[in-house]
Design a protein that fits this description.
Number of strands of chain B: 0
Strand order of the largest sheet of chain A: 6-7-8-3-9-10
Number of domains of chain B: 1
Low-confidence stretches of chain A: none
Largest interface: A-B, 32 and 24 residues
Oligomer: heterodimer
Mean pLDDT of chain A: 95
Order of helices and strands of chain A: EEEHEEHEHHHEHEHEEHH
Largest sheet of chain B: none
Structural class of chain B: mainly alpha
Structural class of chain A: alpha/beta
Strand content of chain B: under 5%
Number of strands of chain A: 10
CATH architecture of chain B: Orthogonal Bundle
CATH architecture of chain A: 3-Layer(aba) Sandwich
CATH superfamily of chain B: MetI-like
Largest sheet of chain A: 6 strands, mixed
Distance between the termini of chain B: 49 Å
Order of helices and strands of chain B: HHHHHHHHH
Number of helices of chain B: 9
CATH superfamily of chain A: P-loop containing nucleotide triphosphate hydrolases
Shape of chain A: globular
Helix content of chain B: over 70%
CATH topology of chain B: MetI-like fold
Number of helices of chain A: 9
Helix content of chain A: 25-40%
Mean pLDDT of chain B: 94
Low-confidence stretches of chain B: none
Chain lengths: 253, 221
């Protein structure tokens, strides 16, 4: 029996003020798969990612997360109520370029907040699991610190623990290392690499070519809102079909 | 008799007035603050007529002299068949008026909140109400703390207007003492001292609460 894809995107379109940002995007991500989305700035990569958890509302097309339609009530085609949208969103996790930790909460509270107040997990249980996750990303020693006192790399590792605490079916990474000092990039990539090894399903928008090559199962290249190349990383980085991708790879070397 | 002796003998009246004012202020501040929070939440993510109505309410309250609102509720409403006791009319006026100001202060803080804060809440599956209560509102309170304190003091001072519509409170108590014994200077100096006491209490509370923000890197005190 073939398993349902974790993420299934069909004919997704999105415009901003009449400018087409995404055009007929089709993408399937299987359980445990890591998909990297590459492309130059303005190609629509971040918008694609933000449509998957409905931070942007697409104009047309559909997105399913684990078989559940995102954002739209399948029975009548209307937008979901805020409450139901929230519960489907909780099946996805997102790691932001700017971390977006909640500054009034400690590191530990950042990680327990959603499990307790969205999923209804008991405080003790949430705390125990949060400490485990913080240990995994190497941040347990900072559990009682507030985010302002952390470095960028530390913030991003906490943000990853915060996402994992919700046990999402897929984790969306929106340029997770772009706001970091170069010497802090490695610590975040190491955590992400560990995640992929543990079988997390991940969609990754990044400029870290070497990393994308090392961890991806599938690489997708966006150009002017269209997917113009999709391939396994071996082929994508050595022998892409499109001239555009060839040029992109040369320039980013 | 020495004027201060007269004041001392009337201490019961001053104490009653002081406690009345304190009670009116505390209840009004609490309710007005709650109204302010509700108004700001009502403005969240809305564009249509609801938003215009809420904005309209806030703007009308801000252009209105407080005393006029009190007159309107106490003298104007009976014309429409709604007769409120003086105390209720005064309380409603305080709550509506200062609720609108609290809303305006919090709204200012809301516009400064980075969009990523809301997106992180949404991405983690928070429904709007819970996201506002647990993640947005605490940050707004930390950011607007000094302005909220200032508004509390303004609310305290506005309670003095309620004496005009026969509400028992501190200024009315002083007025009755000074008019029956003709000691206006001493009576009103006494009143100033008592308002000042409450203001100091508010100031201390606001100062003390600065540590929440300071601990979290919001401000340096």
């Amino acid at each position: 029996m073939s398993e349902l894809p974790v993420v299934s995107i069909r004919r997704l379109c999105k415009s901003f003020d009449g400018v087409e940002v995404l055009r007929d995007i089709d993408l399937e991500v299987k359980r445990g798969e890591v998909v990297s989305v590459l492309g130059s700035s303005g190609s629509g990569k971040s918008t694609l990612l933000r449509c998957i958890n409905w931070l942007e509302e697409p104009d047309r097309g559909s997105i399913h997360i684990g078989g559940v339609r995102m954002g739209v009530d399948e029975r009548n085609g209307r937008p979901l109520s805020a409450r139901r949208l929230a519960s489907i969103r909780a099946r996805t996790g997102m790691v932001f370029q700017g971390f977006n930790l909640w500054p009034h909460l400690t590191v530990l509270q950042n990680v327990t907040e959603a499990p307790v107040h969205v999923r209804g997990l008991g405080k003790e249980e949430a705390r125990r699991r949060a400490v485990e996750l913080l240990e995994k990303v190497g941040m347990a020693h900072k559990r009682d610190s507030y985010p302002f006192s952390l470095s960028g790399g530390q913030k991003q590792r906490v943000a990853i623990a915060r996402v994992l605490a919700m046990e999402p079916e897929v984790v969306l990474f929106d340029e997770p290392t772009s706001a970091l000092d170069p010497e802090r990039v490695g610590e975040v990539l190491a955590v992400m690499k560990q995640m992929s090894a543990e079988g997390h399903t991940m969609i990754l928008v990044t400029h870290e070519m070497d990393f994308a090559r090392a961890v991806s199962d599938q690489v997708v290249f966006l150009e002017k809102g269209r997917i113009i190349e999709r391939a396994a990383p071996g082929k994508f980085f050595t022998d892409p079909d499109s001239e555009r991708v060839r040029r992109f790879l040369e320039l980013s070397d | 008799m020495n004027p201060w002796e007269i004041i001392w003998r009337a201490r019961g009246a001053f104490l009653d007035g002081f406690l009345d004012t304190l009670a009116i202020f505390l209840l009004a501040a609490l309710l007005a603050f709650a109204l302010g929070c509700l108004l700001v939440y009502g403005l969240e993510g809305r564009t249509g007529p609801t938003r215009r109505a809420l904005r309209g309410f806030i703007d009308v309250m801000r252009m209105l002299p407080f005393l006029v609102l009190v007159y309107l509720l106490y003298y104007g409403l009976p014309q429409l068949g709604v007769r409120l006791p003086a105390w209720s009319a005064g309380m409603i006026a305080l709550v509506l008026y200062h609720g609108a100001y609290f809303a305006e202060i919090l709204r200012g803080g809301r516009t400064m909140l980075p969009a990523g804060q809301i997106e992180a809440a949404q991405a983690h599956g928070f429904a709007p109400g819970k996201a506002f209560r647990r993640l947005v509102l605490p940050q707004l309170l930390i950011r607007t703390r000094p302005l909220l304190g200032n508004q509390l003091i303004l609310a305290l001072k506005d309670t003095a207007f309620l004496g005009i519509i026969t509400v028992q409170e501190l200024t009315a108590a002083a007025n009755s003492v000074q008019s029956s014994h003709f000691v206006p200077m001493e009576a009103f100096l006494m009143v100033i001292l008592l308002y000042w006491l409450i203001s100091i209490g508010i100031e201390l509370l606001i100062k003390w609460s600065a540590r929440f923000g300071a601990k979290r890197g919001f401000e340096h005190v």
